[in-house]
Each structure stands twice: as C-alpha cells, then as structure tokens.
Amino acid sequence: MDNAIRMLSTLGLMGAMRSLSEAAELAAGVRIDADYAPTMALLKRLREGEAADLVILTREGLDDVIAEGRVAADSAVDLARSYVGIAVRAGDAHPDIASEAALRKTLLASRAVAYSRLGASGIYFAQLIERLGIAAEINARAVIVPQGFTAGRLVSGEADLAVQQISELKQIAGIEVIGPIPPDMQTPAVFSAGRMVDAKNAAAADRLLRYLASAEVAPALRESGLEP
C-alpha cells in the first residue's frame, strides 16, 4: 500500500484542512499530499489528466466530474456551506454592508475592490455588481486576482475591500472580515468531496472521506469560516 494519498482541494477548505491535517492523516492511515487551488482551476487540471485519489470541489464542480466519470458517484459527500464575505485591512473602519442599499453605497465609495477571476466567489461577485448596476464603476478600479487569496491585496495596499469566501479571506493575516454579503443576496456555496474512480489508494481515500463527513471536524470548519 502506498504511504500517501493525493488530494486536490478548493481553496475554501485550506484553512480547515491544515488545522485538521494530523487528525486527518491518522484517520486515513496515510500521509496526505494536498494541493489547493480554485475549483475552476482544479477542474481544468483534472480534465487534462492530472491524477488524484480524492477531490474537494464546489458541489456543482463535483457533480460535473461525476457526470464525466472521473469521480465515483457513491463516494460523494457534502462537507460544508460557505458564504461570500468582505474584508478590510486590520484596523480600518468597517463599512456598512448589512443591506443591499448599504452594500451598494459601500462598494461605490471604495477606492478599489479585490475579487477573484476563477473562484466561485469572483463569478458570483461579477454577477452581483451587474445586477446592482455598478459593474462599470467597480471594474474601472477593481483589482481582479487571477488565482489565490484576494485579501492579500488589502495588506499590500492595492485595494481597500476584498471579496471572497469567508474561509478564504481568513487565510490572510493582517485583515478583518466585516461579515458576509447579506445572505438574502447570495446562495451559499457547498463544498463536497469524492474519490476519483482511478484512485491508487481507494481504501485510504474512503477513510478520509468518512472522517471529513464526521461530526469531529465541525469545530475546525466553523473556526475557518465555514458551516458544517
């Protein structure tokens, strides 16, 4: 038996998985070789033939690779619910985002908003500002991050607001999460996991999936900004 399993995971689970790493490896019985990237980037890599034992993606992304015959349908488990939030640099004032009108005003008053190009949060935010009728104004001074954590642009001073999944915002030191975009303005993302059909270490992958779906991981998920 190999002494490691390969896990490809969306960035939204990075914080939780890192805090759970020792317990997760104990549960799986092997070392976990983890690689983190946005779901869209992972889907591209999987379709180009990259090998893995287990993947954690958005539910929609997982359903796509199940339909493509890459992930075993009977292995799929939903792990966590995630909301898109907004952050500022630590110590900065927390503007009002509690309602649609307040959020619109705050976005328009910002110097620059950082959001992602590939992630689910970036796709959602691009649609949101279109719906609010402020896309041209926001994008004229936005910092669009090709891949990675948008909150890093707060620390560097490139932006004064960062938009991303709350669990991803919390990965960057020196920032403060204001809160989620009003829940009635978004549908939370669901992060789900499954075993690749050609997994080299299927038994260990199944053990890890059972552990990640257990109540034992709930505190780490909440701490990282996710809802079990």
Q: Main sheet?
A: 5 strands, mixed
Overall number of domains: 2
> Regarding CATH, which class of the largest domain?
Alpha Beta
Number of alpha- plus pi-helical segments: 11
Rounded radius of gyration (Å): 18 Å
Strand content: 15-25%
CATH topology of the largest domain: D-Maltodextrin-Binding Protein, domain 2
The CATH architecture term of the largest domain is 3-Layer(aba) Sandwich
Give the uncertain stretches in residue-range form: none
Number of DSSP-assigned strands: 10
- Give the rounded overall mean pLDDT: 95
User: For the record, what is the CATH homologous superfamily label of the largest domain?
Assistant: Periplasmic binding protein-like II
| Strand arrangement, major sheet | 2-1-3-10-4
End-to-end gap: 31 Å
SSE ordering: EHHEHEHEEHEHHEHEHEEHH
- Shape designation: elongated
Could you say which structural class the secondary elements and strand pairing correspond to? Answer: alpha/beta
- Which percent bin holds the helix content? 25-40%
